[in-house]
Amino acid sequence: LAKTTQPISMDSYEGQEVNITCSHNNIATNDYITWYQQFPSQGPRFIIQGYKTKVTNEVASLFIPADRKSSTLSLPRVSLSDTAVYYCLVLLLNAGKSTFGDGTTLTVKP
Amino acid sequence: NAGVTQTPKFRVLKTGQSMTLLCAQDMNHEYMYWYRQDPGMGLRLIHYSVGEGTTAKGEVPDGYNVSRLKKQNFLLGLESAAPSQTSVYFCASSYSASGGYEQYFGPGTRLTVT
Asked: Which residues of A touch B (CB under 8 A)?
């Protein structure tokens, strides 16, 4: 059964680049990798999604190696408002599971 | 365009009581999901639906039932609530589950079972 693994927590300072890695060893061929951000008392919010190689949007980049067994979310120049929990999701509906990791709590300090 | 809405926002139940949580989406999405999130933990999939009239079990389905009679609504029922079901429940919807489409989440329902 697939499981996603992320670091429990990370600290950073304003203006730095932050990279959060998620491992998903049993990802299926047709599955995409999606990252979400969650603030306290709110539902998760979509950040970025990808299948392989690199994807970039206005807020983040996503790096996925050829074997797709891991992915790295890159947040450029973080600010205090980026303090949140970040989840990677690999949706495995054929197995009756959506594998959200336990999330990485990112704390950005001034 | 309200996105995904959930009713109610908060609820306190006594052990053995029943209730239904309502999720509604106005984006014409095919897929809908119910998750639970316990304190300090990630989201776990309870049930999901790939279209009107269909439902399927997720990772933690025991103690819950669901129905998708209309495309825009996904109901989550607790027939006999237990303290272990104290959690925050999130509903989500997406166009297609198998990649390429993000899930949109509702604001959550905080349920306490005493």
From this structure: 30-32, 34, 36, 41-46, 49, 51, 87, 89, 91, 93, 96-98, 100-103
